[in-house]
Design goal:
It is built from 3 helices and 2 strands, in the order αββαα. The chain is mainly alpha-helical.
Length: about 140
């Protein structure tokens, strides 16, 4: 009897009733590049993303949601200025050594510039009156 139960448990585990799921195929979110004109310039073709309404997931199963990478790839393909940059990036060019050295010096000496506070009030105009250039008086009334 005991060997029969062990054999039944082993058989159920082997045929997939033991909790193992079949792996899902990995989606392809590759950005396709195609030549646009005879000059060899490229155009980026974004991947097609399926709608979220077709998903059949239970949020309590703690499973990863699919298709997150599709929106990222699609947005990148739409936003890229030169699709050639997706193949090989451009050279950054020459940096201004004085600006670079000053920024590094401020960082090392802990004198970095503060970030702009978006909630700060605008500065008030100076209270002194400017002289009138074309006639009139400069005195306040």
């Amino acid at each position: 009897m005991r060997s029969t139960l062990s054999a039944l448990f082993l058989a159920l585990s082997v045929i997939g009733l033991g909790g193992c799921e079949t792996p899902q195929p990995r989606p392809d979110y590759t950005i396709k590049l195609m030549p646009a004109r005879a000059d060899g310039s490229l155009v980026a073709i974004p991947p097609e993303c399926e709608g979220w309404e077709s998903l059949n997931y239970d949020s309590l199963e703690n499973q990863p949601w699919p298709r997150y990478g599709c929106a990222n790839a699609r947005n990148l393909a739409v936003m890229v200025d030169r699709p050639d940059d997706l193949v090989a990036g451009r050279d950054s060019g020459l940096a201004n050594p004085e600006t670079t050295a000053n920024a590094t010096r401020r960082y090392v000496t802990d004198k970095t510039k503060p970030l702009i506070d978006p909630n700060a009030k605008a500065p008030l105009a100076p209270s002194t009156q400017l002289p009138v250039l074309f006639g009139g008086s400069t005195t306040q009334k």
